[in-house]
Design goal:
With 375 residues, the chain is an alpha/beta fold. It folds into two domains: 6-251, no CATH class; 270-373. It is built from 15 helices and eleven strands. The strands form three sheets. A seven-stranded mixed β-sheet has the order 6-5-1-8-9-11-10, with helices on both faces. Strands 2-3 form a two-stranded antiparallel sheet. It has a two-stranded antiparallel sheet with strand order 4-7. Strand 2 (59-60) and strand 3 form a beta hairpin. 45% of the residues are buried.
């Protein structure tokens, strides 16, 4: 691993190189650098995603994900906690070949593993991998089904793993080049900011979402991988860098500046709703916990039950409690529908309710989570 305090986070790609060799290298995996507890968290998450894929119940555009050609060769190997030894592996930096990786050209397979700073790759199936980590061919976009997102964000699973990696290597600066909201918001960034000195999110002057991966790939190739530690540590929020394609803005929060393009919503409002409702619910839980002041009893069951009890005790105004419960129910209904699709009027309603919740928290001088402020 490089002797650096900087971590660059990128995402994998839907396009991958096929095949590989039957040689899994555990020493090159991120789990080799994690405490046992966090390595187990990661392996368990991978295993649960793999089971969903192999079970065939998860669909992509009405096609069973288990029937996608790449997934037919997936086996329960050691990276998933399994015992199969017939998997075919390539290093992650060699496996992925999509937009960002195409910009790395022939040096791609060695550029990311040889970077001066730390590099981790965020993926739907593997969660987090190092560029050198052994990976099987697969097709698993985090948007294929809401359950994938839930598995990685429940109890901040990926965030906990990322924080453990940062602590192990003394990471102080995090560069977020994920580009796509669907992957960026697998991480609870307000928690990362509490432990890192600097967190920078990269947004394009002309493009957003997956289109931004091309200029970001060029930036990785031409500068970020080979930049000195001094140069990387000097990066600051509110500044910008040039690529052969467009200017890229560096922002302290995971949303683009108002003058930059916003990521297009996919399938109506599904993607943004998945992120937005989930984050609203997490904020409501944290506000309720702060209001309770540690007075939860063992028989307290469920978020809605806790909120109702706080309202009866006069700790939360009844109208605010009603808003909290309605948002929670809306989020649950959207998730269990398997689409996260809700009507525009309903979305507008819960946004108004959440604004009222946030205003009440502010006037009550409650510690408002950063994630609330980003909504």
């Amino acid at each position: 691993m490089p002797d650096s305090h900087v971590l660059m986070l990128v995402i994998g790609s839907n396009t991958k190189r096929r095949g590989g060799v039957g040689n899994y290298a555990p020493d090159l995996a991120i789990t080799a650098s994690l405490p046992t507890k966090h390595a187990s968290l990661l392996v368990e998450g991978r295993s649960r995603v793999l089971r969903l894929i192999l079970r065939g119940g998860v669909t992509r555009h009405k096609v069973r994900i288990a029937d996608l050609p790449a997934n037919r060769t997936l086996v329960n190997g050691p990276e998933f906690g399994g015992s199969r030894t017939d998997g075919l592996y390539l290093p992650a930096a060699e496996r992925f070949s999509g937009r960002l990786y195409s910009q790395l050209e022939r040096q791609g397979a060695s550029l990311l593993p040889g970077a001066r700073c730390h590099v981790l790759i965020l993926t739907g199936l593997y969660g987090l991998v190092t560029p050198s980590e052994s990976t099987q061919d697969h097709q698993c976009h985090v948007d294929d089904h809401p359950t994938f997102r839930k598995l990685w964000t429940q109890d901040d699973r990926l965030t906990e793993i990322l924080l453990a990696y940062m602590r192990h290597f003394g990471i102080t600066h995090v560069l977020d080049l994920t580009a796509q909201n669907s992957y960026r918001f697998l991480i609870a960034w307000e928690r990362i900011r509490k432990e890192a000195e600097v967190v920078l999110h990269f947004f394009g002057e002309q493009t957003a979402g997956d289109e931004l991966l091309v200029p970001l790939g060029a930036l990785v190739r031409d500068w970020l991988c080979n930049a000195t530690e001094e140069k990387l540590l000097s990066l600051r929020p509110g500044t910008s860098v040039e690529t052969p394609y467009e200017r890229v803005y560096l922002q302290p929060l995971p949303k683009p500046p108002t003058y930059a393009p916003q990521e297009s919503e996919r399938q109506g409002v599904e993607l943004n709703v998945a992120d937005e409702l989930g984050r609203m619910r997490r904020c409501i839980i944290r506000l309720a916990d702060a209001t309770a002041e540690g007075l939860w009893e063992e028989d307290d069951v469920g978020v809605q039950g806790r909120i109702t009890k706080l309202a009866r005790q006069g700790r939360i105004p009844h109208v605010i409690a009603d808003y909290m419960i309605h948002i929670t129910r809306t989020r649950n209904k959207a998730e269990y529908s398997g689409t996260y699709r809700i009507s525009a009027p309903t979305l507008q309603s819960v946004r108004g309710e959440f604004a009222a919740i946030r205003e009440w928290a502010g006037t009550s001088k409650l510690p408002i989570p950063d994630e609330c402020l980003e909504l």
